[in-house]
Design a protein that fits this description.
This protein is α+β, with helices and mostly antiparallel strands and 358 residues long. It has 2 domains: 230 residues, no CATH class; 113 residues, VSR Endonuclease (Endonuclease, Chain A, 3-Layer(aba) Sandwich). Helices cover 30% and strands 27% of the residues. The chain is built from 9 helices and 14 strands. The strands form 3 sheets. Strands 1, 2, 3, 7, 8, 9 and 10 form a 7-stranded antiparallel sheet that branches. The protein has a 4-stranded mixed sheet with strand order 11-12-13-14, with helices on both faces. A 3-stranded antiparallel sheet has the order 5-4-6, with no helix packed on it. Helix 2 crosses helix 4 and helix 4 packs antiparallel against helix 5. It is globular, with a radius of gyration of 26 Å.
Length: 358
């Protein structure tokens, strides 16, 4: 509605307080951005798959308000003539009043879908609800987030957990979870501490306001039970994040990078082949100029801001080495890390350094 206005109020009425108490029927929809979707599996030491993750960078997220939870009617009523919202209890019925109006906001956020695997046969719903708020608290604690920087919701009839970075601009923590193979080990330790398993709290039977209860999840309080997930958290303590590679797109990207390499540098292609065969993430581009540094690395990882230089025999002369040094220092001043691979040295061992940086 392009002719609507709104203004902030400093006080609310008792009616509005009552509406906030009972809450609204909110649903969330999302769509992944093209080529910005990653899939990973959390696997225990014995090979048991515990969780399946799907990460989407800069995904479209829609939040839709379908009306009050306690109302029998769907949506809201709007008088198109006056532009005023009409109470659902009102008996005003004119042709100018639109019923079943839903309110929607759209945002662009990083999202993470978590699918719990090997669910318990009993109390499945309570297990997923408890896991949702435990992970939300653990992520916020581990990555030092404010309460409003991360949000979560159960989707697909409660089978999946959706997490998204709710703060403006996002904190970038969801991508870090996939980048760190031991992230869920750290999250599990935080969760065990939050749920009083490391330091027992006798006064907490199933959940309390020091662990899982909060004003925002009050409707889920009857289902929260920290004891349901204790065994699962201990399995996560000895787990690893395994990011799945899209073989088809990876092969296509590898071939594209080969075409972008310097035709006179066979060493570049040897290095690229080694990166590909060792399962290290492929660079984003090859021979791309970075204008602010007036430098063209052989390969670039844009998000990680890492540049790779493959120094073949043409770089042996002192004059060329001096020019290389100046350009690479400029690149470093622009916030890039760089790795120099020299054909006469043990450059393959340096690829492990690249793997750890990524």
């Amino acid at each position: 509605m392009d002719n609507a206005i709104a203004r902030r109020t400093n006080r609310i009425t008792c009616d509005e307080e009552e509406r906030l108490k009972y809450g609204y029927k909110l649903i969330t929809h999302f769509r992944y951005a093209q080529d910005k979707k990653e899939i990973a599996t959390i696997t225990a030491n014995d090979g048991t798959e515990l969780l399946r993750l799907t990460y989407g960078e800069t995904a479209d997220v829609w939040r839709i308000n379908q009306g009050l939870t306690r109302s029998q009617e769907k949506g809201f009523k709007l008088d198109r003539t006056s532009g005023e919202w009409v109470s659902n209890e009102s008996d005003r019925s004119t042709e100018a009043v639109d019923t079943n109006v839903h309110l929607m906001v759209k945002d662009t956020s990083n999202i993470l879908i978590i699918e719990p695997l090997n669910l318990p046969e009993s109390d499945t719903g309570a297990f997923i609800i408890t896991l949702q708020y435990t992970l939300e608290r653990a992520i916020g604690t581990l990555y030092k987030l404010e309460n409003d920087e991360l949000a979560s919701e159960r989707v697909a009839k409660g089978k999946y957990l959706l997490f998204w970075e709710a703060a403006e601009g996002g904190a970038g923590v969801l991508s870090q979870i996939l980048e760190d193979r031991t992230s869920f080990q750290k999250l599990a330790r935080e969760a065990l501490d939050i749920c009083h398993f490391l330091e027992p709290k006798d006064s907490c039977a199933q959940a309390c306001y020091q662990c899982l209860l909060s004003y925002r999840n009050q409707f889920d309080h009857p289902s929260l039970n920290r004891h349901l997930i204790s065994g699962f958290l201990r399995q996560l303590q000895d787990s690893q994040v395994n990011v799945e590679q899209d073989n088809q797109s990876g092969e296509e990207h590898y071939r594209w990078l080969l075409e972008q390499t310097d035709p006179n540098s066979e060493f570049e292609r040897v290095v690229l082949k080694a990166i590909y065969e060792q399962g290290i993430k492929l660079p984003d581009s090859a021979q791309e100029l970075i204008p602010e540094a007036n430098c063209k690395p052989d390969f670039i990882y844009k998000k990680a801001r890492i540049a790779i230089f493959c120094d073949g025999s043409v770089h042996d002369s002192p004059e060329q080495q001096q020019r290389d040094h100046l350009k690479r220092e400029n690149l470093h001043d622009c916030g890039y890390e760089f790795i120099e691979l020299n054909y006469r040295q043990n450059w393959r061992a340096q690829l492990e350094q690249l793997r750890s940086l990524l």
